[in-house]
Amino acid sequence: MTLAESREGQVLVVKNLAAGFGARRRLFNLGILPGERLTVLKSAAFGGPVLVEVRGTEVALGRGVARKIEVEDVRGGSDL
Amino acid sequence: MSEAARIYETVPKRVAGTMVLVGQPNCGKSTVFNAVAGYRALAANCPGTTACINSTQIRVKGESIELVDLPGIYSLFVDEPVEKLALNWLLEHKDAVVINIIDASLLGRSLELTLELLELGNPMVICLNMLDEARRKGIEIDLPKLAALTGLPVKGTVASKGEGIDRLFEEAGRSFLSGARPAPIPFSDDVEQVIRGLESELGRVPETAGLPSRFFAVKLLEEDQEVSELVSRLAPEKQEAVAGFRRKLAQTHGRESAEVIFSERHALALNLFEKSSRVRQRTPPGLGEKIDSWLMHKYLGYVFVVLIFFGLFVFVFWTGKFLETPLLALFGSLQQLLAGRLGQNLAGAMVRGLIEGFAGGVGIVIPYLVPFLLGLSLLEDVGYLPRAAFLMDNFMHRIGLHGKSVVPFVLGYGCNVPALMSVRTLENRRDRIITAVLTTMIPCSARTTVIFGLAAYLLGPAWALAIYIFNLLLIAGVGKALTFFMPDPTEGMIMEVPSYKMPSLRIMFKKLWFRLREFIVVAWPILIIGSVVLSLLQFLELEQYVNRVLSPLVVFALGLPEKVGVTLIFGVLRKELTLVMLGQALGTTDFLSIMSRGQVVVFTVFVVLYLPCLATLSVLQRILGWKGMLGTAALTLALAVLGGLLFRLVLAAVGYS
User: What number is the ipTM of this complex?
Assistant: First the structure.
């Protein structure tokens, strides 16, 4: 699934960043890399942006960017 | 000196050396700068507040040192114009002592920039700022351990309280005197091999380009465009070899070479962080999270945005009115007292102009400026602006922008000049152009005093609110229209949202003084000189020619008294001038005895919209070039005429006069 489909409170692991080079680099700078764990803090109404927390940094991501971040729910699988 | 002028202030070159504050956005560089320099750089709890280079002169260990505050950068990989500004500065100052400011509560992430800075080879000191915030988040950092791991001196500070600043600069002074250059921290062995191989392949190319050899090689592996272009220009025969090294790295790691370097650095930084810090189990939800559960609520959040800005509006109006009424009465009686004694001669006219200008500053502008700037500082320092950006992202998409543009917009209500500077933190050129044009339409504090001092004071707060709402709708419409001509879709928002900070009253008042001083030192003299000039023009009966030239616009299009024409000319210098001079031009402060209520509305609408002031135009010219600046000026003038005309017709139709 992608981050755009996430719900508030979900803990997710980043699988892949399908964004362009520039956007990917900005995500890297804020600590959003494959393998990192995100907590979804807010998901704005009306298809608005998503607010995630990664290692203490809170990042606001527009819906379009969130759609390009592939994630996996870790609660379902073994929590290593 | 104005904010605009101070930004490009140059320090006399008789200094022994340079120190530079480098760090990620919102780590508190400007707060450290202000702690040593007095409040001289605008600081706020919002990433990207500093979009320019500030400098000042300080004394460290008896030496005269130039201290430079660079805009915040996440990394040395250049994409946005502010990052380019910062990197170019660093590359041109290879002997400057780098003071790497780190938000201690975000140590892991921040060390990535530290690792990059090490590759530049400048003498360097680490400053762990906001240690109190880190402790609150349950992060305990072993400073000597971090120093041993990085090979750099490490000092802790709480810059907002001034703690640890002296020790930090003492340490930076030691680095300056010793000139010791730190060594980069190596990546894993196979990556190091590739870097060394590429370095020897490049030979003297980096030197020719004036860049450190290792830095040059790493940048090439990161697929940095500018450095790659340097190779194609200086040594086109080596391009093939460079591609070979990139392929080698990509093959062994199974991903692009740029990503290999990024991930290596990420892992290295986290490793340093984990070795030097202990994180206690997640602390219970702090006050910030509780506040956010309301302010950032799915639906209520939007209600709070409106309430917060409406609250600011009400606060400014009532405080301003409370102060303006007695002050105007005081100056009114003073003028009457003097009126009898001053003859109708040149000296008399000049004295009258002097008093008008002085009274306009104290009586009309300051009562609204002070509460407005206080309210704005509170929103900035608490950290509400990025949250407003988050909430408004959706609406901004409707006008072809995204949430990050909200920050320059809100800053624009203070002053358009720093707001335009912060436009440079946007990633995409098209977004920067549209945001810059729209920012100049935001009623800054000068225009705010006209709205409050004229429309709200004479006709009631509802009129001021109506003008603000009309202005927002107009901005949205223009945004939509510009998007039609520049349809490239924006990439969308990627923006850090900092945690809430308790604003310090001391710093808030210093900031108020910083912005107020700009009014007192720059604007007020212009108001006074403008008033004297107008008095002279009136005495010599020259102003009627100006008025006659402007009469087609003022009288025919807007339906205003011909006499107000001359105030519009002066308004381009400072928008407050229109208000201060109106009394002079009409010959009375009882505006309603000459202008109808409808005319007051039309005049205010026109003044708010037409031509940004000269300082704004000059910054706009630097951002958009002459064509963009003149185009924006023409656009605002056209909108002002149309807006004024619209209000005139609607008010006439509903019979408001």
Answer: 0.92
